Amino acid sequence: MFGGHDEELAELTAVFETLDFGENQSVLISGLHGAGKTSMLAKLQDSAKDNGWLVISDDASAGLMDRVMETAVPTLLSELSHEARGRLTGLGIWQLNAQWEYVDRHREVKPLLRRDLVALSAELATQRPAGLLITIDEVSSGKVRLRELSRFALEVSHAISEGANVMIVFAGIKVDLDALVEQEHTTFLRRSRELDFRRLTPRQTQHVLAESIHIGGKQIEPEALTLLATISQGYPYLVQLAGDFAWRSSGSSSTITTADAHAAHSRAITAVERRVISRVYQDLSDKDQEFVTAMAADEGGRSKIADIVRRMGVSDQYVQVYKKRLIESGYVQADGRGHVVFSLPYLGDYIRSMTAEPSGAPVSDDWGDFPPPSAHAPA
């Protein structure tokens, strides 16, 4: 089940049927880790293939350009008919052997991604109304990565300007996507459609859980469904975890009960803290950590900027800089004038657990009767 974003998904997938791009030629999908960005890319890829499009899917790690030109494009060539490969070989861009398998590029023509995309798009147009979907996940704002991504985006932009039917979709944290858009050769990305993936609504959350359980062949008690939705707080990855743990707790039973939902509670939250929240916190700068720690002092979940200023011992202007950056990163959101709340569920709880004074209670682990020997063996 894919929860939420139904309207956006319908509008994007309609392009694969009509070739009417509109504002959807380039798309930027931002959101928290685990918010469903990669799942959205997968939905788009499946829909594109179902409609006869060619798909290039990769991430923004080093070597993107080489992987696309030396692996992804030749793979697409191998999926075409012999006749199509023959026509493309005649353009002098690729070299194929007698079995119509990719061998190497003709170096008389300088290999450029834009030429690959234009040629493939033109060939598709002779067969059916279709194009190419390019999805790039895990966009990073590191300087080296941004340079390569900028060069990659420039090639795609040239291909589009030459008439290639291409939709390109980048996914990542908003602050990283913003850094990409500000690069020298990515002007066309500033006109991109932007999708911001945050939490699902309570209704969407319950729908995803109930439908997933139904598709799997089980039922769920209404109270258990409400509890699982409450535990997950609409955070898609946590919806997956809570539902999975409750399902496993139910064993061979055909019904997930409230007891199963309770059994999933601590396991799901512990898992998301270890796999996502702890890493998010560690990736923050020292000052960002100070800001969210000042927020976490308000256990009610809503913090006044004035209180954060006082706790950090800095000026309001200084705090506003970090507030803006954390909002752009997706971890914090404004909640009325002069207030902020956490966007990532349980981040505040995690920070409070990190900063809490140790209880001093003795640890009972059965090793009290077996004290460690001296570090140095007796002479």
Question: Can you give me a brief rundown of this structure?
Answer:
It contains 15 helices and twelve strands. It is of the alpha/beta class and 379 residues long.
Can you put this structure into words, describing what you see?
It is a single chain. The protein is globular. It is 53% helix and 13% strand. With 379 residues, it is α/β, with parallel strands linked by helices. A five-stranded parallel beta sheet has the order 2-5-6-1-7, sandwiched between helices. Strands 10-12-11 form a three-stranded antiparallel beta sheet. A two-stranded antiparallel sheet has the order 3-4. 36% of the residues are buried. The mean pLDDT is 88.
Structural Rg: 26 Å
- Structural class by SSE content: alpha/beta
> What fraction, in percent, of the residue positions are helical?
40-55%
Can you tell me the overall shape? globular
Question: H/E order of the elements?
Answer: HEHEHHEEHEHEHEHEHHEHHEHHEEH
N- to C-terminal distance = 67 Å
Could you tell me the mean pLDDT?
88
Q: Based on DSSP secondary structure assignment, what is the total number of beta strands? A: 12
Strand content: 5-15%
The side-by-side strand order for the widest beta sheet comes to: 2-5-6-1-7
Poorly predicted ranges: none
* Main sheet overview: 5 strands, parallel
Number of helices: 15
Outline the fold blueprint.
Elements: H1 6-18, E1 26-31, H2 37-50, E2 54-59, H3 64-78, H4 82-89, E3 95-96, E4 102-104, H5 113-127, E5 132-139, H6 143-161, E6 166-172, H7 174-181, E7 193-197, H8 202-215, E8 219-220, H9 222-232, H10 236-250, E9 255-256, H11 258-283, H12 286-296, E10 302-304, H13 305-312, H14 316-329, E11 332-334, E12 339-342, H15 347-355
